[in-house]
Amino acid sequence: MPNNNDLLKEIRQNFDYYMAQWREIREEARTDMKFISGDPWEPRERRVRQAAGRPCLSLDELSQYVNSTVNDVRVSKRAIKIVPKGAGATDDLARFRADIIRQIEYRSSAQAAYATAFQNAVERSYGYFKVTARRTAPDSFDQELVIRAIPNPDTVLLDPDAKEADFSDGRAAFIIDTLPVKRFESRWPEAEIKTFTGEIAELAPAWVKDNRIQVAEYWRVEMKARTLLLLDNQDGPLKIFLDELPGAKLKGEAVTLPDGLQFRVLNQAKTETPTVIQYITNGIEILETNPWKGRWIPIVPVMGKEMYVDAGAGSKRIIMSLVRLARDPYMLYCYYRTCQAELVGMTPKVPFVGAAGQFEGYEEAWQNVNKAPLGYLEYKPVVDGAAGALLPPPNRPQYDPPIQSLEMGAESARRAIQAAMGTAALPTSAQRQNQKSGVAIERIQQIQEHGSFHYTDNFDRALAHCGRILNDLLKYYYDTPRDEAIRKPDDSYEVIRINEAYTDKTGKQCCYMTDQGEFDVTITTGPSYQSQREEAAEFADTLARMPEVFARIGDLIVRLRNLGPIGDEIAERLTPPDIAAQKAGQQPIPAELQATLQGLQTQLDAAKQALAQAEFEKKAKILELESREGIAALQETTKLAVAEMKVDLEKAQTMVQGELAAIRQQLELFAKTSALEGTAMQNAAMPTGA
């Protein structure tokens, strides 16, 4: 095994340094989670109260605001959008890359990973998810990208010296796990060190604890100095790194290859390119070394509100959660509610108080005084033995706990919680009844959304970084010609061929290359897909009132209603013939032929209508005639008229059939010509000698 002492020393030093730099942030996060879980009391105060039998209430007042912020992101799903930047990038390739990233998200259940990271950021100020790769099947060499959740964010340590908000400039990172010794030995049977005691434990005390071994993914970015050249090539300027030309020598403004071929250098620059490597280590030895193909460490952080505060020893990074400044008012709120419960518990439960002996002889009546309506109640007069005076009758103790004052204090604490979290309580049902419109309610909801929008904005920044990572990795993990599934923005599914030219079912020439072009990444935000369907269905209902429009989009209107299999069948029957032909891969009928067919159909419909009108007039005239002679004459006349109409109709039908036959011949000739043109295009696209 190679000597990795320097690397292991670096790993242990970085681990200790990262832990020290993140310690205060993590301690505050642990306190945040304590409050989120409903425990705002100091441990000592809770023990004292419980020992004295006093109440110690913890009412949930924080999670409703946290859930509102988190669920807003769950409902308004984000989409990673790819836009062309240059170097052969096109809109079609950008859409293809966005569709394949959308399929990666769908296959990985990425929305759950995103929501987990965002919820951690809101609750404790930081959360993470990661991008990894796997084989598509055990018996396949093809690989695919996967997005994984990191449920416990305390297992991640990022470079504390990174300056970018998404930590994309970080040079190292840890993902930590702890394993029992036996499981560790089973997972890495070839590990050199089997016993973690004595000097080994002293060497890495932070890595060996209570018969458990800490194992970490140590991600490291190594920068490589390179020379970038712009060469004068016969096909145009060529951008290439000098180390990509084995044996080439750069002298002055020329590059000479080993075979003597020389290129003029138009421009050159010194630059650095990152190389990312993953090491699996227990702090004592390197267990695995896995080069990563991307430019960034594939750990995506979602951070809360970031601030730099000078507490007297220089500026220090602080990451705030949504609940951080609401902890004190929440503690006060729980204290007010506890005092209310305690005072209510102090209210006397005995309805009457009297001197000893005053209830003698009337015990049953006094026991049932709160159960039965009595006309009168007697008591036995008792004389004070010392003073000789008659004692007053039994009386009801009066005690009214100051609940109203405590309620005002609790409400003030609730308002302080809302102010600290940048939110506002939604109106009650009684308040809604007094509203004449929904404008006030919408304004309250906007205040709530804007008050915590900086968390949502940080989440969007994290997704953009995830999009850059995925976009950068596509050319490495989807690098072979193969059939690949993609997912469209409307959630429809399609299988296409990548990294190889082909003709789709509509006859279109397609070529989706993963190594072509340069692209930028943006994030689009909108309502959930279900909300989009509802809005589209409402708008489509408006269009459906116009018959000429419904004839073209009737199938789409039905599909928007989600009517199930019957709805799908209705939509198929309503699909316009030309659209159905295109979906089936057939050539569309030329517009001029469609117009001719429409005209012939109109003539045929007119002839049929004229015949039906003649039959109707015949029956009407027969009913109007009263004499047999008139009826006979009318019948004879009608027979002649009908015979003439039939002759005319037969002539019209013969003419229409002849023209239809000519149209069919033209369509057959058009189809043959299209097929020959398609064959010629395929032959032209094939390489010579294929």
Distance between the termini: 49 Å
Q: Tell the overall outline.
A: flat
Our count of helices gives 19
What's the count of strands?
A: 20
Kindly estimate the percentage of residues that lie in beta strands according to DSSP: 15-25%
Main beta sheet: strand number and arrangement?
A: 9 strands, antiparallel
Describe the structure.
By secondary structure, the protein is α+β, with helices and mostly antiparallel strands. It has a domain at 531-685. It contains 19 helices and 20 strands. The protein has helices at residues 5-36, 43-51, 63-75, 91-108, 110-124, 181-187, 199-203, 327-346, 363-367, 403-420, 429-433, 439-451, 453-477, 529-544, 547-560, 564-574, 577-583, 591-624, 628-685; strands at residues 78-86, 126-135, 143-150, 156-158, 172-180, 208-209, 212-231, 238-241, 249-251, 254-256, 262-281, 286-292, 299-303, 305-310, 315-320, 482-487, 493-498, 502-503, 509-510, 518-525. Strands 4, 5, 6, 7, 8, 9, 10, 11 and 12 form a nine-stranded antiparallel beta sheet that branches. A three-stranded antiparallel beta sheet has the order 3-2-13. Strand 6 (208-209) and strand 7 form a beta hairpin. Helix 8 runs antiparallel to helix 10 (403-420) and helix 18 packs antiparallel against helix 19 (628-685). The protein is flat, with a radius of gyration of 41 Å.
